[in-house]
């Protein structure tokens, strides 16, 4: 009988972390360890080393991140500590303990000026502190542990935590009409689908009894998001339709909804590589939105 493999999920109290908690029961062949920042802050290098020394960890899924995009502009040091330095240290520890690291990154590593879906090989050019910190995290992870798998995702939503879907549901109950930006295009990502995809990746890696050659997955960067590209307005309109809300949703340009950080106008990610590499099927965003809304209701 194959030895039970252990998966550590850091940032376990966030949207993606909680999705892993939900699906863990579907994978009895794995032992899961869930660590939130309360009991294992990834920026605490000594605590990370001690944790890995005390536990045999085969896979580490790093969901921990500083995600306050606007706030990062005034908390630059904190954003770079959590999203960059800590990720580099975590990657180094995973390298030392022969743990496969899967790190979650973002579409914000791009500047949003493309006119066709971003491929993993496209040039990065983050325009915000948040995006720059996440890109540096990718670079440090690969520098300290070349076998790191990086998954870039976008517009994440879930039945857990705070996200666009939950905000829209609240506003649609509170107001007769809302204004939503219609000139930013991207791909919604249901965190439950992302978690399921990561488990498929882990399953395929687990099929091999021999140790992975780091060269096999060197600079292994993948994009993951649900199928289909929409504007925030179209996303909100779908939420309205699926919930039967009477709230009127009005499209507005970004210029009418200023934010401290300019959002990418185009955040569509190409997912061909992850589908071809791991033979995964990615649902359409509308199908996954409907599933998520049923859980929230």
Strand-helix topology:
Blueprint: E1 5-10, H1 15-23, E2 30-35, H2 45-54, E3 59-62, H3 76-96, E4 100-106, H4 129-144, E5 149-153, E6 156-157, H5 164-174, E7 177-181, E8 185-186, E9 189-190, H6 191-206, E10 220-223, E11 230-231, H7 232-243, E12 248-252, E13 266-267, H8 272-278, H9 285-296
Parallel strand pairs: 1-2, 1-3, 3-4, 4-5, 5-10, 6-9, 7-12, 8-13
Antiparallel strand pairs: 8-11
Helix pairs in contact: 1-6, 2-3, 3-4, 7-9
Explain the overall architecture.
This protein is of the alpha/beta class and 297 residues long. The protein has a single domain, classed as NAD(P)-binding Rossmann-like Domain (Rossmann fold). 38% of the residues lie in helices and 18% in strands. Helix 7 packs across helix 9.
Q: What is this structure, in a nutshell?
A:
The protein has 297 residues and is an alpha/beta fold. It has nine helices and 13 strands.
Shape: globular
The CATH superfamily name is NAD(P)-binding Rossmann-like Domain
Count of all domains: 1
> How do the strands line up in the largest sheet?
2-1-3-4-5-10
Provide the CATH topology: Rossmann fold
Core attributes:
single chain; alpha/beta; Rossmann fold; 3-stranded mixed sheet; 38% helix; globular
């Amino acid at each position: 009988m194959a030895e039970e493999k252990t998966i550590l999920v850091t940032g376990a109290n966030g949207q993606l972390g909680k999705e892993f908690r939900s699906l863990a029961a579907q994978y009895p062949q794995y032992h899961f360890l869930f660590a939130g920042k309360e009991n294992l802050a990834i920026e605490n290098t000594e605590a990370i080393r001690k944790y890995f020394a005390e536990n045999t960890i085969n896979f580490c899924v790093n969901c921990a991140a500083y995600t306050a995009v606007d706030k990062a502009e005034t908390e630059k040091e904190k954003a770079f500590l959590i999203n960059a330095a800590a990720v580099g240290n975590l990657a180094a520890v995973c390298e030392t303990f022969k743990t496969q690291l899967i790190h979650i990154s973002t579409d914000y590593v791009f500047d949003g000026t493309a006119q066709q879906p971003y491929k993993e090989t496209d040039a990065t050019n983050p325009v915000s502190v948040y995006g720059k910190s996440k890109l540096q995290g990718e670079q440090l992870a690969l520098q300290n542990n070349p076998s790191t798998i990086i998954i870039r995702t976008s517009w994440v939503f879930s039945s857990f935590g705070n996200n666009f879907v939950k905000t829209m549901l609240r506003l649609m109950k509170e107001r007769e009409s809302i204004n939503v930006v219609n000139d930013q295009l991207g791909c919604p990502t249901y965190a439950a689908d992302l978690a399921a995809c990561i488990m498929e990746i882990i399953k395929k890696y687990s099929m091999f009894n021999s140790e992975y050659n780091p060269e096999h997955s060197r600079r292994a960067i993948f994009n993951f998001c649900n199928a289909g590209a929409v504007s925030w307005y179209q996303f909100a309109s779908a939420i309205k339709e699926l919930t039967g809300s009477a709230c009127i949703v009005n499209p507005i340009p970004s210029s009418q909804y200023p934010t401290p950080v300019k959002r990418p106008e185009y955040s569509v990610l190409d997912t061909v590589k992850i589908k071809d590499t791991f033979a995964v099927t990615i649902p359409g965003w509308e199908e996954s939105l409907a599933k998520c809304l049923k859980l929230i209701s």
